[in-house]
Design a protein that fits this description.
With about 325 residues, this protein is of the alpha/beta class. The protein folds into 2 domains: about 140 residues, Rossmann fold (3-Layer(aba) Sandwich), CATH 3.40.50.1370; about 160 residues, Rossmann fold (3-Layer(aba) Sandwich). Helix content is about 35%, strand content about 15%. It has 11 helices and 9 strands. The strands form 2 sheets. Strands 7-6-5-8-9 form a 5-stranded parallel sheet. The radius of gyration is 19 Å and the shape is globular. The protein starts with 11 loop residues before the first helix and ends in a 5-residue tail after the last helix. About 45% of the residues are buried. The mean pLDDT is about 95. The structure holds N-carbamoyl-L-aspartate. N-carbamoyl-L-aspartate binds next to helix 2 and helix 6.
Length: about 325
């Protein structure tokens, strides 16, 4: 693996290996001294052209825990706001000797362009591009599901997610998380159902490796996990649903709906949450919620990705 651009780049074996390495990283994070020397002398550049809290901090923590030098660059306050192109930014980073570039960009495909146009020799990690993909989020979701639902008396056994049933609910149209999750969870053997109003489903969703439903209550029955997606108001240029109240009534996750799930089922959300819209506070903070744990698992998964991309060969 040279870059991590899409969840579709990962074979089942590569994805399982990444989750296994992440599991080892969790072990190291429970020690008093969390830092590992694996990437000493390497430079990781975080290039964020779009707002982010969790993903940016998570990649930064992951690179630092592996002893890499980390440069975080956000477009605001940089020459990008003076009109500098992605190409010129990439050439600048190249000249500074970056070994890995973590990119978040509002344009779908920007990290692919960076990796494939020959502007940089660094490993490129996609940290979310437009409405397209967010592979490390999918990995941390898969990792969280595996930790709770596979082995140890959970509904599945084995190394992947075979046999698990996962529902992903909400604004699929604007969500790069949904696409990456569907691709990766399918690769890992899970059966995914997308639940959304027809206006919030992308054209071509029929060809995704998943089922689609418009009826949340009916879809919930028998799911091992359900993930709420954020309603991405900032990407909406039209009315995609009649009112916030109507949306919550039909597609919001609340205590009543969670009670329809089997005992072992867990609740995920990639964050940031619109509490009261796609998820109630009671559900978000309730016993089934693994939302805070997703954030800590994100660090372990990103450590694993950086490690395998940068030190994998000599490991
Ligand atoms: C997601 C993103 O930015 O795509 N958040 C994240 O990375 N944790 C989802 C979202 O913004 O709703």
């Amino acid at each position: 693996m040279r870059h991590l651009l899409s969840a579709a780049d990962l074979s089942r074996e590569e994805a399982v290996q990444l989750l296994d390495v992440a599991e080892q990283m969790v072990g190291t994070q429970q020690r008093e001294i969390k830092k590992l020397p694996a990437l000493r002398g390497r430079t990781v550049v975080n290039l964020f052209f779009e707002d982010s809290t969790r993903t940016r901090i998570s990649f930064e923590a992951a690179a630092k825990r592996l002893s890499a030098d980390v440069i975080t660059f956000s477009a605001k306050g940089s020459s990008v706001s003076k009109g500098e192109s992605l190409k010129d930014t990439a050439l600048t980073l190249e000249a500074m000797g970056a070994d890995a570039v973590v990119v978040r960009h509002p344009a779908s495909g920007a990290p692919h362009r960076l990796a494939r146009a020959g502007w940089t020799r660094s490993a490129v990690l996609n940290a979310g591009d437009g409405t397209h993909e967010h592979p490390t989020q999918a990995l941390l979701d898969a990792f969280t599901l595996r930790r709770h639902l596979v082995g140890g008396g959970g509904p599945a056994t084995g190394a992947d997610l075979a046999g698990l049933r996962v529902g992903i609910v909400g604004d699929v149209l604007h969500s790069r998380v949904a696409r990456s999750d569907v691709l990766l969870l399918h690769t890992l053997g899970a059966q995914v159902t997308l639940v959304a109003p027809p206006t919030l489903l992308p054209v071509g969703v029929e060809s995704w490796p998943c089922r689609v439903s418009y009826d949340l209550d009916a879809a919930l029955e028998g799911l091992d996990a359900v993930m709420a997606l954020r309603v991405q108001l900032e990407r909406m240029d039209a009315a995609f649903f009649p009112s916030a109240r109507e949306y919550s009534r039909r597609y919001g996750l609340d205590a009543r709906r969670l009670a329809l799930l089997p005992e072992h089922a867990v609740l995920l959300h990639p964050g940031p949450m619109n509490r009261g819209l796609e998820i109630t506070a009671e559900a978000a903070d309730g016993a089934r919620s693994r939302i805070v744990e997703q954030v800590s698992n994100g660090v372990a998964v990103r450590m694993a990705a950086l490690y395998l991309l940068l030190a994998g060969e000599d490991a």
